[in-house]
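Running this now, will post back.
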Amino acid sequence: MGTVWFCLVAVMIAVYVLLDGFDIGAGAIHFLVAKTDEERRQVIASIGPVWDGNEVWLLATGGTLYFAFPSLYASGFSGFYLPLMMVLWLLILRGTSIEFRNHVQSEVWVPLWDFLFCASSLLLAIFFGAALGNVVRGVPLDRSGYFFEPLWTNWRLGAETGILDWYTVMVGVLALATLMMHGSLWVRMKTSGAVSERARRLAAQVWWAVVLLTVVVTVVTFRVQPQVRANFATWPWGVVFPLLAIAGAAGVQWGLAKNNERTAFLASCAFIAGMLTSVVFGVYPMVLPARDVVHSLTVSNAKAGQYGLKIGLVWWTIGMLLAAGYFAFLYRSFAGKVAVGAEGENGHGS
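Update: finished.
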């Protein structure tokens, strides 16, 4: 049951990144694709009906971690307390900037919220990437399962690591580039005119950075975390996950070349899913690697009781079916290109 829940948590993380990833990406490219107030309202309107629902998957993932792997939840949320608080404030600033932007028409008010929307989205992408880098690299867990990391130390991969070092920052930059590409493809698909065309050009440009960084980070990861190399050697079938990422990256370029907006966006989803599943496959059975591998939290020593996991699986399945149905209805209801009226009203075409 532990492995089943490990896979379910991985699926939930992937769903969150796929959904909230495009609206974080849309915020990160806000000033690059939108030059006027009307164009910026187009970008915000493209995510307006769904951004807050997408963030529910982050809360659901945290709740699932608390239920299925309480030791991981306890160690991770205490050890990463400082960056978690920073992420929380960035999420608050991002949400308020989206909701409050159009409440007052002012030469100070509107640009302030535009800046906060863009800046918080940029930092969130980097911090989420750095968090993933920390999990892959490993943290200084002791035998009791406790650890603390300052924001940075000496930027090296030694015994005393910080949240930020050269490797986690590199993963953070890759995450930012990936979500910028993902967000550009979403904005391209949901808007029209100059905004859509700028988003297309930006996605095509960022694609090269994503591919280059993916190659570099992959090579470095095999050296930083030996478990990744061992897992791919032990279970060669796991190559299907990086192949999915490669196919997704190629599909993005093909979709852009053919001017097929939906194909390009779905290919970006495949790329992100392939990258995340490759990481999950690479670190298994560890759920939180330690710098000293004997102290690592694994599926077996971090999971909850067997009976609870079995009963929880029933209720989790019911909850996920309801959530999937709701999200299918939501995205179908707001399908098509966005339309922004002269007074600022937002609408969707068919």
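The radius of gyration is 20 Å. More later if anyone needs it.
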